[in-house]
Amino acid sequence: MSKKVLHIITAFLLVLPLLVIVYLSLVYRWAGQNLVPESFTFDYWKDLFTLNSDLGSSFLLSLFISSCVALFSTTFGFLISKQLAFENKKWIKLAYFPYLIAPVVFGTMLQFYFNRFNLSGNIGGVLIAQLLFIFPYSILLLSTFWNDRIKQMAFQASTLGANNLELYRKVLVPMAKPWLFICFVQCFLISWYEYGITHLIGVGKVKTLTVQAMLFVKEANPFLAGLASCLMVFPVIILLVANKRIFLRRTEFL
Amino acid sequence: MIKIEGIQKSFGGEPVLKDVSFSMTESGTLSVLGKSGCGKTTLLKILAGLEMPDSGKFLLNEQNLFEKPAQERGVVYLSQEPLLFPHLNIFENIAFGLRIRRTPEQEVQNKVKALSAELGIQDHLQKMPTQISGGQRQRVSFGRALIINPSIMLLDEPFSSLDVQTRDEMQKLYKSVSAEHKITALFVTHDLKEAIIMGDALALMEKGTLKKYGSMSEFINDPTSGVKEAFDFWQDVMDKNLADKFGTS
Hints:
The complex is a heterodimer of chains A (254) and B (249).
Chain A: H1 2-25, E1 27-29, E2 39-40, H2 43-48, H3 54-86, H4 103-116, H5 123-142, H6 148-159, H7 164-193, H8 196-202, H9 209-218, H10 222-248
Antiparallel strand pairs in A: 1-2
Chain B: E1 2-11, E2 14-24, E3 29-34, H1 40-48, E4 55-60, E5 63-64, H2 70-73, E6 75-78, H3 90-100, H4 105-119, H5 134-146, E7 152-156, H6 164-181, E8 185-189, H7 192-198, E9 201-206, E10 209-212, H8 216-221, H9 227-246
Parallel strand pairs in B: 3-8, 3-9, 6-7, 7-8
Antiparallel strand pairs in B: 1-2, 1-4, 4-5, 9-10
Helix pairs in contact in B: 3-4, 3-5, 5-6
């Protein structure tokens, strides 16, 4: 019984911050001295779906950037990690480099070059900067897939007549599906929540959801910050639930 | 006729294969006996196209197969472990090579069913690889190779991970199926008894060199083949057993 109570308390503590941001996103007016808000509204949520909504465009922009970064990192991470794991294993260590320093410091280091190549303050620059930070992560994650058993299976498929394309299509990708999905989700999440590098390279012009949320926080507008946080959190919850399902189904034989 | 001419291979300056040359007739099994680390797996991987030789030729009907990539050689390599594709069921594992070759569906169905019946795995076709035993997995692996009618099968100690009884069954099965399908194979093993049972011809591999024997008697009489030691060992065991039983010395 006490275990059940503990579970309920833990679940409540986990859900509480989510409830708070949903609550804040529905508050219309809340004077500082009052214990409870004076009124509630759905207007912020309704505004999201209007054409000139800043938050709506930030949401779509973040979705675009994170999807591109995750797709690129997963696809090329898979191909390159194979080469590195089987041919040049020691080079994998290089992928740790971006994580030896803080993202903001990393961004500052990049900023000089991005300014010189006119990549500051535009989406292309932010995409490249995020990739430089996230792509090595996909290499590190996916290199754990390539073991000797996989190598032997690939050899087996080749001797049975599979060319390179068929090898990927019929053997390697189906076997790596759980890894690929996890990698995609993780890269998406890192990009989705990325603030430091995006803020530095985007110089405030590329308003992703995190940049926009921070803007509302700085403006002391907790209601719109709450709404931005809701937008940030809910897609992530959906991805995490899907991720967990795939992860639990992860094949036992590898 | 299959000819292997002057294969050499070194890893980091250390020679692993030294001028390996031999020939073998089609529709027969050449057993290659050798201890661990003598270079027999490297030889098979080179023939399969999984490693590149430093020099040498692999001639099948006067065509050098080293000039072709692994997938075009028609040489199938079977390792110690069955290595079935874990995302495919048994039927699809066996059918893999046919699917690659875009064989018509009806032909795939017929061939897989006929071969699986021959190998005694017809009741397991819809199961996944984790749902069958080690011996059955080895049968599936064998069937997957056999179904594409390869020019040569390279068997790298395929039964060494099986228990004694299953191993005997697999040896018998291999003998009957290889005779039925006229398989050309190179069977590598470190087990003297298995080499003798499985091979139509015998070869010994030692420190990167391969010596093929013209006859069984030549193999038995070669002091390096290990037959004499094995014979002496069992003779000694028998003598001791008799001495213990009848109390004589």
